[in-house]
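Narrative summary of target 7.
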Amino acid sequence: MRKSLLSLVVLAISFISFNALNAEGQMFVGYCDGQIATSSNGTVTGQTGSNATIGELIRIPGSMIAPFKGLQLTGVRAGLPEASSYPETLTGWIAFSKDGDRITTGTLSAPSNGWNFIPLASAYTITGEEEELWIGFEFVQSKKLNVISFVGETNPDACWIRKNDNYTDFSSRNLGSLSVEGAIEGDNLPQHNLSIVSASTLYTMTQVGNPIKMKLRIVNSALVSAERPVLDFSINGNVVYSYTYPGTLNYRDKADLQVEVPTETLTEEGDVKVDIHLKWADGTEDEFEADNNFSVTTTLSEKVFLRVMVTEEATGAWCGYCVRGLVGMAYMRENYPETFIGIGVHNGDEYVVSSYDYWMGHDTGITGYPSAVVNRTRIIDPNSADMESYLKNMYPFCETSLNLAARLVDESTVKFEVALESLVNNDNAQFDMAFVLLEDKLPINQSNYYSGGGLGPMGGFENLPSHCDIEIDDVARAIYPSVKGSSDFVPSKLVRGEVYNIEYEAQLPAVANGDNVWAAVLLLNHASGEIVQAAKVASIQGLTGIQQVRSEAATGIEQTFDLQGRPVSEGNTGLIIRNGRISFQR
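Modeled conformation, tokenized:
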């Protein structure tokens, strides 16, 4: 298993919203930010039939209930979206655990659209020592009722749904947080309580001399407005940076911030702990200091290796929509030459590499042409916008670097030479490695569905005929020793800072012009198959001029597609594409 970069240490605090009614001396605690969905999330609501028990439940950790020590939980607030019908009765309750005995319950008859307050039979006095509290409500339905509300951001403590016997966590569906809140009352509700909800570094590794880039969320959890609150960032006990929020946080307001913490005083590699403190600008004492502090840890390193994005594109001359991929790949190659490698895997034309084509069509999960497999983890459309978005949102660093060279040993043999370096010690490195030979400026007669401009502009293809003679780049001509690589190249133990030299020789495939041939190396996670790092070299030393063409043996496998480039079965009727030719199949 791949050993990850030194992980970010985060003291996790769940985000809780505090919402007030107009009634004086009352607050509500929950995760929905006081909101209710306009309509139900029907994917998780109820069952057809009679007497099905449905429930909604949230968990409040002790760290977030502690500021209300001495106050009372007096009821449960249930948010119901608009619906054609509602349950006859809601039962609210609180407990110390999800499946434990209920501390107290209460009922409300004839609930309706909006917020419904369920008074508890007996109020619960908060001790400040609770490890957690669970707050929820249930109802028995006589028919299917779509009245569950998920809104806003998903919190893993705010997505528990009951269908009959058990509560199930729905947070993995990313629907939002349930509209469930606990009512808190008393004479001494918090007046001054700023909180750091979350904090983390954008990257687990920072290059020595560069600032530590962080993102934070802060919230005003009490009634008095906070003008220009201040965040102090300390390293080794010394405040190195102070950030002043340029506005006012009123009751319930939250702010998402990005801050760069300078590191001029740090010259050595290693883990660095950053302590964060949130305070009132006017020196007001916060009533609950525990949630004013946060700590994160990042790693400083002299070297930082940028991760390369590899896009393997399913394409072919017969595919009229595939010009979209040609335009997208050219855009990425021009604008991101250091962090992008595009590989055109052809189907049904003269540039097919049988094993690569078979893998693309059968092992990746693509459903049509063109498609792009990014780092062998995700399928996207190969247009420039989608590929650029993926690269910008991809984690930018990698624990390994690859430097590739390639040269011609004799007229039929190419030799690849790789220098691999790791930023971490790894006693159980499990990597595969594959080598790809590619060629640019290859002539092809390309089908072009963008001809005439009916589908909009497409990099000039709208001005070309429906079948156009063009030159294409990034064409895969061979992949060694197999599409999935081999585990024979990378040692199982990697030492930080040591460089490992890897060599591999392979037969040179058919190429049109050696001046346009280049190579790439792919480092793959052995367990998952993900491409974790890659490198390329612009030319093959000693390979120049026209090379003798050697045809690759055919596989005997025929592939059939519809006019949208989707694989179809042999029994499919109508217009189809088989081995690059359009025909009518009865």
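The CA atoms of residues 441 and 471 lie 5 Å apart.
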